[in-house]
Amino acid sequence: MHIVCCLKQVPDTADVKIDSQTNTLIREGVESIMNPYDLVAVETAVRLKEKHECLISAVCMGPAQAESILRQALSLGVDKGILLSDRAFAGADTLATSYTLAQAVSMLDRQHQVDLIICGKQAIDGDTAQTGPGLATRLGFALLTYITGLESFKPSQRKIIVRRKVEEGQEVLEVNLPALITVELDLARPRRASLPGLMKSLRRKIEVWDKNAIEADAEQLGIKGSPTWVRRIGVPSPRAGGPTFNAAEGLQDAVDRSLDILFQDFFTADEPGVAEGEEHGKKFQGN
Amino acid sequence: MTESCEVAIVGAGPAGISAACILADQGVETVVLERGEFPGSKNISGGVLYGHDLAGIIPDFARQDCPIERNIVESRVWYASDEGGFSLAYRDAIFKEERRLNVFTVGRARFDRWFARQAEKKGALVVCGTLATDLLRNKAGRLGGVRTDRELGDLKARVILLADGINSPLAAKTGFRPDPAPEHVALAVKEIIELPEEIISERFNVSDEDGVSIEILGSVTRGMNGVGALYTNKKSLSLVIGGNLRDFAELKLKPYELIEEFKAHPMVASLIKDGVPREYMAHWLPEGGYEHVPRLFGDGYLIAGDSGMLFNALHREGSNMAMVSGKLAAETILQALKKDDFSEESLSIYQEKLKESFVLKDLKKYRRFPGFLRKHREIFTDLPLSLSMAARDMLTVDGVDKKTKQSRSWKMIKSKTPLLRLARLLFNAWRSVK
Q1: Chain A residue at shortest CA distance from B37
Q2: Per-residue pLDDT tens over the stretch B235-292
Q3: Percent of chain A beyond pLDDT 90?
Q4: Cis peptide before A178 (omega within 30 of 0)
């Protein structure tokens, strides 16, 4: 049994700030972390390993510093970490990224047949949720997105039963392996590494694969292989605060006037709401 | 499957990392345990470091991308009253070229991370996000490792270096050293105030690489035995103020009010004008002085840095004493490894090394200083105010003759601080630092 987890290093969006002049992300001083959904993917794989005999590989495409999240995966019980790092990979959109990952998984498959790929449902920086499905499509794996539960795992029958979140409820599906699942946060609560796990991961060397190692077609990599164009990134302007009434100058008056405004807004909610929406819509055009 | 190593170090601050660098460089299997998410995430100081002592660990630090903020070329001391104060400054071109990086400023989050990276490059293992919760003892009661808060968290070691800072839950739990009394600890609060690089250079009259340090005594600590400071970073200023913990309690002062008043002081306000506060932090400083340095070694362990009260309050030297004590502890451990003897007696050479170094020499020289400040509270109350009033009077041109001014200034000073008290203050001051 061979499970591959696909990981991404992302800026910790809990403290992301936008430069209001250039409308770009201020990366300086922002910590990089493993995409939280990917951490759930790792946890899911490690839990499977505790019950079934399997090998877990983790792949991550990114610059040299992304090594730290592979190390984190190793500390939690992943057997092997591979960093896909090459200048040619830079500037990739989800199409080029899924190509690069697919090439890497094919290489891993040659070493040891891959049965299950686990991805986070999306990355918290781009929020596209496209890379996992793209990878499944390229490899011809069954695709199951938004997984909230692993009902059963039957390696001998090469089957997996999963619970999936859909708009109006949940689906429980049985699928043949090989499959790719993308996971939700509520699937599993990530553990904290044990001391031996953590120390072992710090001692390990992380394997780095470049474009030759994955036998990639250079035309499909990085910015060359990315048809997506980001024309502009917009930031919604902060909402102006409402009026203030000083209760010290007359409590009853302040309450009455506040209520007047609340009711006025309530009965005419359509008009200002739409106007505001349009304004934001314009700002986001071309995004 | 318990993990083991030769040397376990608790704390990835300047003391722990200095020791780790020396040990790992000699091929000793060294593990540093750090409770913060990364080295420096929980470490706080004024932000001034000394090149000489850092070079003792990393000789070519300036060429190793050490994240230096500004090279200090001018040191100022202020004696401040409520509305003004005296200023003494010394600038020297030698600190710009020949003795560059004699003193410099750093941001601890970046510096400590860089410093730990140097230890890792030499082969030390820095294990972060891991809290040391207890010390492991063998049947004979001898220390044999550290327990951490992780699963399977025991780490066996032949010797342990406790470099875990002044506020140590491990010390509180195991009693390897006494918890410090409130009067032997200062509480300092610090703000990082962001300003454009060129504004800082202009306000302090320096080039973009160089900077100024200011130590501020007087009524700014609201009568507490304490000190304020202002240091220039590349694109920010570090503003620090602190006082004795017992004084804080007795005078019922709130640290955040103290720093707000400090920021509003006319001499400070103009320097931080239009700055944006980016970080706020607080920390304990070990200010017990020589008399309250605990025993720094025992069977199977050594103590270095703040945890051992190795701090010179008068000269704002803490990080460098941590580095030097960490280095001396590592040298002691290397000798003990050769002898394969980690008994109290074998490790006692650490104390000898510290006595021969400036660390204990300086602390001994200033051993009366903490007591002096406690005894002469007027340094922080009446004295700065009356001296300022006198200066104000002398500098006001109002047609009054100088002799009259002098005599009324004297009278005013003497009415606040009697002559005998003043004489005793000067004598005690001289005695406490001689």
Answers
A1: A31
A2: 999 999 999 999 999 999 999 999 999 999 999 999 999 999 999 999 999 998 999 9
A3: 66
A4: yes
Contacts of B32 in chain A (CB under 8 A): none
Maximum pairwise Cα distance, chain B: 87
- In which order are the strands placed within the sheet that holds A207-209? A169-176, A159-166, A142-154, A179-183, A116-120, A2-7, A55-61, A80-84, A207-209
Cα-based distances in Å from B278 to A106, A228, B271: 47, 36, 16
Strands A142-154 and A159-166: antiparallel
Contact B359, B325 (CB under 8 A): yes
Can you name the residues that pair with A173 across neighbouring β-strands? A162
Helix extents (H) in B51-205: 51-55, 108-121, 169-174, 197-203
C-alpha dist (Å) from residue B276 to A30, B194, B279: 18, 5, 9
Amino acid at B30: T
CB contact under 8 A, B125 and A202: yes
Percent of chain B predicted with pLDDT > 70: 100
B29 and B181 Cβ atoms separated by less than 8 Å:
no
- Cβ atoms of residues B259 and B229 within 8 Å: no
Residues A137-146 as b or e (16 or more Cβ within 10 Å = b): ebbebebbbb
The full set of domain ranges for chain A reads: 2-220, 231-287
Using the Cβ of B233 and the Cβ atoms of chain A, whether some distance falls under 8 Å is answered with: no
C-alpha separations of A155 from A10, A48, A176, A228, B151 in Å: 33, 10, 10, 38, 29
Which of A194, A202, A203 faces B152 most closely, judged by CB atoms? Answer: A194
- The matching CATH number, chosen from 3.40.50.620, 3.30.1490.20, 3.40.1010.10, 3.40.50.150, for A2-220 is 3.40.50.620
The ipTM assigned to this model is 0.88
Quick: pLDDT tens for A108-122.
Answer: 999 999 999 999 999
Residue B399: count other Cβ atoms within 10 Å of its Cβ: 5
Q: Which of A192, A202, A203 sits opposite B150 (nearest CB)?
A: A192
